[in-house]
Structure formats: C-alpha cells, structure tokens
Specification:
Peptidase_S26, 4-stranded antiparallel beta sheet, membrane, transmembrane, 8-stranded antiparallel beta sheet, Signal peptidase I
C-alpha cells in the first residue's frame, strides 16, 4: 500500500513566504518611517523654511510676479538692512480680518501650527530702516538718508527714483521701515505713514528672509543678503 503525506497548509488569508508576523513588522516599520518623514517635513515647513508666490511688480527687478521663493525663518536680531523679507501686514498694511468662529477657528489654528498661511496679508519688501534708524527722503542727489548718510541702492528698478514721496521718520524700537525695489509701483511703508506704527512693521511680524527663487527654472537662484550698511 502506498502511503500518502498531507501537504503543508498555508494559513488562511496568507501566502507562502515570510511569516505573517515578519510581514506585519515590516509594514509597521514602513508606516512609522512615513509618519516620521511627514512630521519632519511639517517641522521644517513650520520652523525653518516656507515657500511663497510673488503677487505683484513691486519687487522688480529682484523678484518678478509669479515667481516662487524660498523663505528662511529668522529671529528678530538676524534681520539686516537690505534683506528681502516676507511679513504679515495685518494691522499695518491691511486691516485685521474678523476672528474666525467655530470650526473655522479650529481649522485656522491647526493651519497656523502646521505653517500654512492664508497669504492675503503676507507682503514681500526690502528692509531699509532698522529699529532706531532715522530714514529721510532725500538728499540733493535724490538718495535716501539713513542717520544722515546716503544709502546706495543698486537693486532699484532702472529708471526709478529712491522715492517720489518725501518723508522723515525715526524707526521705533522693535520695528522696521520697508520698501519695494520698484519704488514707483510699490505700496510700502511710505503708503502707510498714517497707519498704526507710521508705516513701520513689527519685527515680530516678519515671517522670514527670502533666500532663493525656486520657480520658474530660468529664474532659479539665490537672493543676496543685505549689507547692513
């Protein structure tokens, strides 16, 4: 008589190969790695860098409308004269919107924690005056004066004067005087002399410094820091 041997059975719902426990462990590790990677991306976006789109002509020729820029978050002491910065103009350049209610408030809070911003109140300008500076327009050659010394501005849009608006302002502590590079087409600190802060922006409202253009490809490059002089 020929004896028969039963064939090894495969666990229900499984397949031959790695044990079910090992496959489950690999899957858990993959999920964990994905979660950690996502968390790192969110942390970097929230605390290190963000991207913004340039909405207008006000920063030409340095930045053109539609370009995407990379913004490095900075602490207040790191801001220099000449830096190109993105800031929240709520309460200075634009009116504060109504406070969100209910689910909208929860969503806004979560979005803020994750580094996502609505964008309507965000502006990009160049720092011209630091806290304590006296900024004056202009000397007999049409140049801006910082504490009585002429400011050289090689970044200006060709053909533009440093300013067609006359002003003389002492920048308050903890605030900045900001202007666009395309002075004849920029609603900047000069346009808000009668607003709270006299057109200046709080250091705490600075989101970060523009460090590079990332799009389109023909514009990719770094954005130089201010000289501080």
């Amino acid at each position: 008589m020929t004896s028969t041997h039963p064939r090894p059975s495969t666990p229900s719902g499984g397949s031959a190969g790695a044990p079910a426990g090992l496959r489950s462990s690999r899957g858990a590790r993959a999920v964990l790695v994905l979660a950690v990677a996502l968390l790192l991306v969110l942390l970097v976006r929230t605390f290190v860098v963000q991207t913004f789109s340039i909405p207008s002509d006000s920063m030409q020729p340095t930045l053109r409308p539609g370009e995407r820029v990379l913004v490095w978050r900075v602490d207040a002491p790191e801001v220099r004269r000449g830096d190109v910065v993105v800031f929240d103009g709520t309460g200075t350049f634009v009116d504060a919107p109504p406070d969100p209610q209910g689910l909208a408030a929860v969503g806004a809070g979560i979005a803020g924690l994750l580094g996502f911003r609505p964008g309507e109140s965000d502006f990009v300008k160049r720092v011209v005056g630091l806290p304590g500076d006296r900024i004056t327009c202009c000397d007999d050659r049409g140049r801006l004066l910082v504490d009585g010394e002429p400011l050289e501005e090689p970044y200006l849009q060709p053909g533009d004067a440093p300013s067609d608006v006359r002003f003389d302002i002492a920048v308050p502590p903890g605030r900045l005087w900001v202007m666009g590079d395309h002075r004849s087409d920029s609603a900047d600190s000069r346009s808000h002399l009668g607003s709270p802060g006299g057109g200046t922006v709080a250091l705490g409202d600075v989101i970060g410094r523009v460090v590079a253009v990332t799009w389109p490809l023909d514009a990719v490059g770094t954005v130089a820091r201010g000289s501080g002089s």
